[in-house]
Design brief:
Oligomer: single chain
Number of domains: 2
Number of helices: 16
Radius of gyration: 21 Å
Bound molecules: N-(iminomethyl)-L-glutamic acid
Number of strands: 16
CATH topology of the largest domain: TIM Barrel
Helix content: 25-40%
Distance between the termini: 27 Å
């Protein structure tokens, strides 16, 4: 065997996450007790027991990383973030804790449009400066790949500005970023009462400009009584598909609005939130193979009930991904392990299911077949945790157990 660049040895277990969401998650994680991981050229080159290392694999130039008897698994993939924004909304948090609702605050001029005002006023440099520490915190929690949405610009110039910020962040941080255009996040103030005209602006101007610059891989829309209608989603996401952007949508979050059924109809990659998904919606997601992205931190943060029915989605055969949804309004937290804990406590998932959802389930949702898994040939994005088994991660609620993070085999 050609010499390895790096060997991670002395683990408690290595989770390679090689299975599928259609088999029991404990089996899909493929835990290998005391296994080693060999890396060459930024990719996983070998996984096995140390005595079985092929001749020539370890040479004096191979770096050895001692996991000191701890667990190793693929880096987390966060499939849903609104990482780029200016300003903050701690006052809204305080108001909600005294009884105001997310919708009441939005209707009174707070909410998404207030972050739009602050983000429009900020320069590209300022937005990069503000987002970098958030990205660094995600990395510290073990996130090696993250999706990032626009959605606080809501006009041609500012949506482009946000996505250019994502591109600059990707060049400044080791975390791999997947950009999503979310121009249909809210109806901007200057289009008040003219929602359909704003959707036309998205279709005729924002989307083509973003596609021309190759700034986004996905196009997302917030389908909700207070935001956009299913017909708006059909119009925007059909146009997005024609320009090569894969559809996603925020659906069934605050009210039950057929978001899951719509995602299935439009062949969306994901539908995100799903707190109020219907039984028919769950069946539609399974049949159309749409990933359900659960973001329980925001259900907690906006004090809404119910949580998304993770157990039912899983039992129906739906692939589940789990994200932080870091944003200034509904989830001011980069803590993915906390989302995993809530995924168990409130979405009814098992520890193995939330680990799947935060790694392989999320990678598949983002169309990244070599991520979120440690099979030979996959990207060598991995985390050495300070615990010895994966059940400890959601159980030690919200605590960061990422001890060492490697991106493409490089220790960060
Ligand atoms: O995913 N639901 C819509 N968008 C965000 C909230 C954004 C905000 O409040 O600023 C979400 O929860």
């Amino acid at each position: 065997m050609e010499p390895l660049d790096l060997l991670v040895r002395n683990t408690s277990e290595v989770l390679t996450v090689e299975g599928s969401h259609r088999e029991p998650a404990e089996q899909a994680l493929t835990p290998r007790p005391r296994a080693c991981v060999g890396v060459r050229g930024g990719r996983v080159a070998w996984v096995g027991q140390e005595p079985d290392l092929p001749p020539g694999a370890v040479t004096p130039s191979t770096e050895i990383l001692d996991a000191e008897g701890r667990m190793v698994g693929p880096g987390f993939v966060d499939p849903h973030t609104h990482l780029v924004f200016a300003g903050e909304r701690s006052r809204e948090f305080d108001l909600r804790n005294q009884g105001a609702t997310y919708l009441e605050i939005a209707q009174a001029g707070g909410g998404i449009v207030s972050t739009v005002r602050a983000t429009r006023a900020a320069s590209e440099e300022e937005l990069v400066r503000l987002a970098l520490p958030r990205l660094q915190r995600l990395l510290e929690y073990g996130v090696t790949t993250a999706e990032v949405k626009s959605g606080y610009g809501l006009d041609v110039e500012n949506e482009l500005k946000m996505l250019r910020v994502v591109r600059r962040l990707a060049s400044l941080s080791p975390v791999e970023l997947v950009p999503t255009l979310l121009c249909a996040h809210a109806v901007p103030e200057e289009f008040k009462g003219r929602r359909e005209a704003y959707v036309e602006l998205c279709v005729q101007e924002i989307l083509p400009a973003v596609a021309r610059e190759g700034l986004a891989r996905f196009c997302d829309i917030f389908v909700e009584q207070s935001a956009f209608t299913p017909d708006d989603a059909r119009r925007l996401l059909t146009a997005a598909k024609a320009l090569g952007l894969r559809p996603r949508l925020h659906g069934d979050q605050l009210t039950s609005g057929g978001g899951a059924e719509l995602a299935a109809e439009l062949g969306a990659a994901t539908v995100d939130h799903l707190e109020n998904v219907s039984e028919a919606g769950i069946r539609a997601l399974a049949a159309a193979d749409v990933t359900a992205v659960l973001v329980p931190t925001s259900t907690l943060f906006v004090r809404m009930r119910p949580y998304a029915p993770g157990r039912k989605l899983r039992e129906a055969g739906v692939n589940i991904a789990l994200g932080t949804n870091i944003n200034p309004g509904s989830a001011m937290s980069e803590n993915l392990p906390l989302a995993m804990g809530l995924g168990c406590l409130e979405n009814g998932l098992s520890a193995a299911e939330v680990y799947w959802a935060a790694t392989r389930g999320a990678a598949l949702a983002l169309g990244l077949p070599s991520h979120g898994r440690l099979a030979v040939g996959d990207v060598a994005d991995l985390v050495i945790f300070s615990c010895t088994n994966y059940r400890h991660l959601p159980y030690h609620l919200g605590v960061n157990h990422a001890r060492a993070v490697l991106k493409y085999g490089r220790l960060l």
